Amino acid sequence: LLFLWSITVSIFGIGGLLGSSGSRYLTVKYGKKKCLLCNNVLMIVAASIMGCSKIAHSFEMILIGRFMCGISAGLCVPLHHQYVGEISPKKLRGFANSTSSFFWSLGKAIGQISGQRELLGSQSLWPMLMAACGFPALVQLVMLPFFPESPPYLLMHKEDQEGCKKAIRQLWGEGHHQAEIDDIMKEKATMKNTKILSVLELVKEPAFRWQLYMIVILTATIQLCGINAV
């Protein structure tokens, strides 16, 4: 039982590692909006599997659902930051990116509170708690089709200048947005002259060794403080 409990908890992180590792390839190939839409479907399926685990008398369904949730969360973290940052006007970009951290923390707090025995953590209601992660995914799945694809993706990867202008007008309103388009073109030119390192190349690169150590230490200690420690 202890082993199964440990695997159930930790398999989320394994899924998260796999999801985040594949996020760059998927976003370049399919675009951020499509990836987010498919990611929501994955989360809804995972929530449904976990929600039905008690009826099916199957702990394996919880393991599978947790693993799928981890993959979805691993994909969502970089996707969400990139998409929100790229569709926001420049003056609101910092604020828009900071809201994601706020809502991550708020979601964790709501999950902890909802999991109390007096609420959804009871013997009869815990499947609803496990399936609750599908509700935000369902909301985004319904609303996201009304938003355009990321303008930088359309211009830099699809080379669709008209589509980029249309997306910018839809997001930021009518007006002269040539300066923003020029900024995207400059970024594209910079990226052509910049080598993108793989994870293995990053680990082996001596110039980034101390930065890598610092990130690893910070990320590890985050797991030992605050709501995670509780």
From TrEMBL:
SUPFAM superfamilies (alphabetical): MFS general substrate transporter
Compartment list: Membrane
One Pfam family from the record: Sugar_tr
GO cellular component: plasma membrane
An annotated Gene Ontology molecular function: D-glucose transmembrane transporter activity
Membrane-spanning residues: 6-25, 37-56, 62-81, 125-147, 210-229
UniProt keyword annotations, A-Z: Membrane, Transmembrane, Transmembrane helix
InterPro entries reported for this sequence: GLUT, MFS_dom, MFS_sugar_transport-like, MFS_trans_sf, Sugar_transporter_CS
Domain of life from the UniProt record: Eukaryota
Predominant localisation class: membrane
Membrane topology: Multi-pass membrane protein
GO biological process, any: dehydroascorbic acid transport
Residues in Major facilitator superfamily (MFS) profile domain copies: 1-230
PANTHER family reported for this sequence: MAJOR FACILITATOR SUPERFAMILY (MFS) PROFILE DOMAIN-CONTAINING PROTEIN, SOLUTE CARRIER FAMILY 2
Protein name: GTR5 protein
Gene that produces this protein: Slc2a5_1
